[in-house]
Structures are given as structure tokens and as C-alpha cells.
Design brief:
Elements lengths: L1 H38 L3 H8 L3 H13 L11 H14 L3 H8 L3 H16 L2 H4 L10 H4 L14 E8 L18 E8 L5 E9 L4 H10 L9
Antiparallel strand pairs: 1-2, 2-3
Helix pairs in contact: 3-4, 4-6
């Protein structure tokens, strides 16, 4: 009787292991097929889902991999991690939605998101370069509508409201022109449509003029006007 009982336990154990491996292999296959559709096949599909084309996605992956902050793991590569991040921020998706599409646990999706986020934030000094005003921008010189009227202009500046989730004790400070809480983010860009300065963090109720004053007077990460 004991021998039969032991045989049943061994059979159940091997069966459960087989099912786990089958589920894992099925998830790997579906993830591989999804990544191929997103990044290797139709460029329009890649743009619609990740908000950038295939070439731009490949360059971003190489840059982030070069920082050393993102690495291939035993179960996921950098391409998958970046794709999940772009899909979330591009469509305001929830963790449970990405868990379903990528066949990953909620913890894995969250961990990959924050790893990519930290890697992108580390590149601010590389991509956010403020102009020195020493020469007129080519985009102005080559446009008769701008030249010579805007020959001393170095870019454009504006504020934008981004939806945020904050605790109830401070939520009123984040409610301004919108019915939901927001951050009022100050940003500048050059005439070739590249961001040159970003100041996030201010509550949605804060006036644009106050944020601009802070950007000009702060001790670090200040807005430089040549």
C-alpha cells in the first residue's frame, strides 16, 4: 500500500513539473511572437504600440544597454523590458494589463518598468542640453518666415499638466485647471524639436510665472538664459 501511495505522489510531482514547464514554454513562445510583431515586422504597428518606429526603438535599446543599467536576464532581454515600459507610458496601461499580454508576474512587470525608468532618467545630461546662444539656429536661418525676425531666439518655453496620483492630504494642491490632480511641468525645446530643459514636480495649482521664477533662480538644475 505504501509503495502504491509513493508511486502516486511521484506521478503527481512529475505531472505538476511537466505542466509548469509547458506553461512556461507557452509563455516564452507567446512573448517571442509578441516581440516580433512589435519590433521586427510592421513599422506602423511598432509606432502605434510603442510610440516610435523600429529603428528608433533599436537605437534606444542600444543606448540604454550601453548605460549598464539594463542587462539581459535569464528569462527576459532588454528589448522586452523597454517594450513593456514604452507600452505602459504610451497608452497609460495598468500593471495587470501588461501581466496579461507579456505573460509575466506583476512583480516582474513592476521591476522591469522601474529599471527602465531609472536608466532613462540617468540619460538627462546626455539629451537635455541647453543652448549657449552663440550662433543662430539653422532652422531659423533657413526659414524666411523666421529670418531675420527671430535671429536671437533660442527656443520655445511652455508648461504642461500631467495627471498624477497623490495622497488625499495633499490632493487639493495638485488640482488646478483640471478636475483631476496634475503636476505642472515646465519644458523648453529648440527649433529642431528637441527638449533642452524640463522642470517637473510642481503642484498643478501653481502659477506658471512662479515656476518660471524658480527655474531661473534655483541653485541647481536651473534654466540658463544666455
Amino acid at each position: 500500500m505504501y509503495a502504491a501511495y509513493a508511486a502516486i505522489l511521484v506521478s503527481v510531482y512529475h505531472r505538476s513539473n511537466y505542466l509548469e514547464r509547458s506553461i512556461s514554454n507557452e509563455g516564452d513562445y507567446e512573448r517571442h511572437a509578441l516581440m516580433e510583431r512589435l519590433t521586427l515586422m510592421d513599422n506602423e504597428d511598432c509606432y502605434n504600440q510603442l510610440r516610435m518606429g523600429k529603428d528608433a526603438f533599436a537605437r534606444l535599446v542600444n543606448i540604454l544597454r550601453g548605460t549598464g543599467r539594463l542587462r539581459n536576464s535569464a528569462h527576459s532581454n532588454v528589448e522586452e523590458q523597454v517594450a513593456k515600459f514604452l507600452h505602459i507610458v504610451g497608452h497609460n496601461l495598468r500593471n495587470r494589463t501588461m501581466k496579461f499580454y507579456f505573460k509575466r508576474s506583476s512583480e516582474t512587470v513592476s521591476r522591469h518598468f522601474h529599471q527602465v525608468l531609472r536608466a532613462i532618467i540617468s540619460l538627462d545630461d546626455v539629451f537635455l542640453k541647453q543652448p549657449n546662444g552663440l550662433k543662430c539656429l539653422q532652422e531659423i536661418k533657413d526659414n524666411t518666415k523666421f529670418w531675420p525676425y527671430f535671429k536671437d531666439c533660442i527656443g520655445a518655453i511652455d508648461g504642461s499638466h500631467f495627471r498624477v496620483k497623490v495622497s488625499n492630504d495633499v490632493v487639493q494642491r495638485y488640482r488646478g485647471r483640471k478636475y483631476y490632480p496634475t503636476q505642472n511641468v515646465l519644458a523648453t525645446c529648440s527649433f529642431d524639436l528637441k527638449f533642452t530643459y524640463v522642470l517637473p514636480g510642481w503642484e498643478g495649482s501653481t502659477l506658471d510665472s512662479r515656476i518660471l521664477d524658480n527655474a531661473l533662480m534655483r541653485d541647481f538644475d536651473k534654466l540658463i538664459v544666455p
